[in-house]
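Table S2 (text version). Query chain:
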Amino acid sequence: MLAVPSLTAALLMLLADHHLGTVFFNPAHGGSIANYLNTFWFFGHPEVYMLIMGAWEVVSEIVPVFSRKPLYGYRFVILALMLIMALSFTVWGHHMYTTGLVNDSFFSVTTELISVPTGVLVLCWLFTLWKGKLSFEPPMLFALGFIAMFVIGGIDGVWMASPRRTSPSTTRTSWSRISTTCCSAGACSGSSPRCTTGSQDERPDAQPEARPMAVLAPADLVQRDVLPHALPGPVGHAAPGGDLSLSSGWGLTNMIETISAYVIALSMLIGLVNIIITLRKPRNAPADPWGGNTLEWATSSPPPPHNFDALPEIHSERPVRDLRLAISAAARSAGPPGSGRTGTEPRPEAGR
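Corresponding structure-token output:
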């Protein structure tokens, strides 16, 4: 609501310059290119966080479920997300350091500040993983791959925050790259039983003891594609139209990148085939195959049109887990048939 109107304004002024004879962005007639840069990047940088916000939220749901622990610092995660959204409107100027139009320490400070709440997110995820009962199901593998990619991709913020350090080598090349492919795949894998009511084929991960070895696969594969493309940046190799022949010295890295890109495309195709097969299989997925925490896992599969027969009670950020514990405690209290238990005996304390 706040960022997109700025892009709309930039596009309308550009349209008017081309077709109505206005001069908003024409320096020869009193306009200014800086007008376009500011109106576009005021949208462009918050837009980055709009796209990755969903990934952060998905990881914040997947990691607790497959760690069998509550999300560490739940309120800090919410606060961090709010701070990132607010600060995203204060850093657009660092995209214009190399133009000579902006050399302001304000944008340097805000760019560094935004790394604080993003660091809080990573620490909360890692502390959630720490000493958890980790289950390396496909959604968890993709979430771990995303965390690795996010940390590696965020390192370039050290350069982006400094007007003196920033140069065409880092802003006009492939130096700055990050991918949310891992998280998108994790979200699809995790929500598949609810969306398709079928169980996906997990034969590549059939052996539980082999699954930890697959943790590195998503991040490693994407890094094999991204890093070779990023390496020419710091030495001044331009991204668009650059020479990547063998004689340029970058032919091998370009070949590794190209092969990795095709492998990633093939993996996406395999995932699509898996989805199609799942849709054709019997609709026999259980209502809560992962032991989820949130309310979408509290209904049957497929869910009825009205979702719930009765409005669930919410006592924490993990209402479905609370419901499972209550049902388990009630079953233990009642005891087996003929046991003579009345349900008034003391019950064992539920785990975390």
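Notes on Table S2: Residues 33-67 form the longest helix (35 residues). The radius of gyration is 25 Å.
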